[in-house]
Amino acid sequence: MISPLELSDLAIEIAREAGELARRRRAEGVTLAATKSSLADIVTDADREVEALIRTRLTAARPDDGFLGEESGTGSGTSGITWVVDPIDGTVNYATGIPLYAVSIAAVEGVGPDDWTALAGAVNSPVVGEMFSAARHEGAYVDGARLRIAEAGEAGALLATGFGYDPSTHAGDLEVVGRVMPIARDLRRGGSAATDLAYVAAGRLDGYFERGLQPWDFAAGALLVEEAGGRFLRPEAPTIIRRLCLAGSADLVAELERRILQET
Ligand code: IPD
Ligand code: CA
Hints:
Blueprint: H1 4-28, E1 32-35, E2 42-44, H2 45-61, E3 66-69, E4 73-75, E5 81-89, H3 91-96, E6 102-109, E7 117-125, E8 130-135, E9 139-142, E10 145-146, E11 157-161, H4 170-180, E12 184-188, H5 193-201, E13 207-211, H6 215-227, E14 231-233, E15 244-248, H7 250-261
Parallel strand pairs: 3-5, 11-12, 11-13
Antiparallel strand pairs: 1-2, 3-4, 5-6, 6-7, 7-8, 8-9, 9-10, 13-15, 14-15
Bound molecules: D-MYO-inositol-1-phosphate (IPD) and calcium ion (CA).
């Protein structure tokens, strides 16, 4: 049986090649291929090409594994392992020339984000030049240096969030922001959920919250946070239609959950 470390090595190798391709295509100029759920939700030709590269490499290395990708959908496997892939997380940043975007690749066991166990993950930030990785029970790293989450200090928590592409949900997102600002030192909206989660794992951000993330946005980043000693949580709340993701230290996640879900 393949170990989480071997899966993580494979994720790193493929995320590196995919990141180089994304970067090269960006330098050549971006072509918008389509809009998805809304006008703001764009997909570029590069998203599709990068995902195709990742899928080809994974199929060659691990033909019996399943696949779940943002652009090309699902492929079933027989090994019990599924690769969950976001070829370019932060597509709007990518398309507009903001350098914060990432390739996110995770290997998970089990079906669906509520039941799966993440085994390995890599988040490559190709413009910044950082490769975040984690293997289950083996820790989280950035370019070989061990990661450890931060505990918010007296000045309050440095938090990050994101807003979905559907303008009709923005008022609700801002209401959520209002609920957590009393404990925040400041708030970031970087534009790449995978990178936000990697930064929580690295202790650069204290915490992160966002409604409506997709599995490929958080599969690798959630493992990074957990392997860096933190907590990643998707609380069930009947009144929150867009499922909430929380990350940070166990204490901070509990506080964010309490504040956000209270009277929602
Ligand atoms: C998006 C980014 C963004 C988050 C959105 C995601 P995409 O992913 O992670 O930070 O706020 O919810 O959809 O579309 O750029 O791959
Ligand atoms: Ca994404």
